[in-house]
Amino acid sequence: MLFLSPRFTPLSTPSERSLPSKRSFADHQDPLFTHSSQPPKLPNKPLFKRLMAHTQGSVSIEASLIFGLLILLIVLLAQTGQALINQSRLDRLSYSLLSLARESSLYANAPFSSNDATGLYRILNTLSKDMMPLHTDLALKIEVLHFSSDGISRSTQSVQSYDFGPFACQTPNNLQDNANLSVMTAQQRYAPLYRVSVCMQQTSKFSLQNLITRFIPLSSSSIAMGR
User: Residue 79 and residue 197: Cα distance in Å, rounded?
Assistant: First the structure.
């Protein structure tokens, strides 16, 4: 008579029954709560493009400010250069008119008169048409200082002054303050002094140009002895 032994199945411990296997735990994990120790991979972009993507707004603001300052600087340099050019033109005009004024008494054999001053103002208007910019007003002031005929001292005898133009031309000082520039001639008298001043006034609503004219006055004075 055969006896079959029952199959022996080993009993598992309570700790082993409570812990699931690694595979079964991974299979039952919720995909929403999965956690990985590795950092997420960034898109493969060059470093310059990533920096530009983060600083695009600030770069635009800085570029607009820099370009605005550059444009303002260029305008300032252009206006300053134009003011210096006008100043040199006024120097040439005043010196040319002074040469005519001091020679007028030599050829006319008469003292300087108002007709001579009016003729110089007409010459100024003619010359300024090709030299000065548009919307420009010019003023002319002619002064003649005569000394006493005693030939001993430089005492002032008379001062002639003629003003032309839409505004008064300002001179740097009184003509009498330059009396020491005169010398005694062969006729034993002090030569008269002539001064011609040309001033320019440009009508403009541009505030920057008006600011430049405060530092660069658009006027010129030339002084010389008569014949």
Answer: 23
Q: How does DSSP classify residue 62?
A: H
Q: Note the Cα 50 to chain centre separation in Å.
A: 39
**Mean pLDDT, rounded, for 66-80:** 86
The proportion of the chain whose per-residue pLDDT surpasses 90, expressed as a percent, equals 18
Q: Does the pLDDT value for residue 97 go beyond 90?
A: yes
Distances (CA, A) of 51 to 39, 48, 121, 124: 20, 5, 68, 64
Return the H-helix or E-strand segment holding 94.
Answer: helix 56-108
CA angle, 73 as apex, 68 and 74 as ends, to 5°?
A: 100
- For the chain, how far is it from start to end, CA to CA, in angstroms? 169
Which pLDDT score is estimated for 22? 47
Asked if pLDDT for residue 90 goes beyond 50, the answer is: yes
Is pLDDT above 50 for 113?
yes
Print burial letters for 141-151: b (CB count within 10 Å at least 16), e (below 16): bbbbbbbeeee
Residue 2's Cα: distance from chain center in Å? 122
Residue whose entry in the numeric block shows the structure tokens 């010129």: 220
CB atoms inside a 10 Å sphere around CB 123: 15
Check residue 51 and report its DSSP letter: H
pTM listed for this prediction = 0.65
Q: How far apart are CA 197 and CA 95, in angstroms?
A: 9
Cβ within 8 Å of residue 103, ≥6 positions away: 227
3-class SS of residue 164: strand
What residues form DSSP beta bridges with 224?
Answer: 194
Task: State which amino acid sits at residue 163.
Answer: D
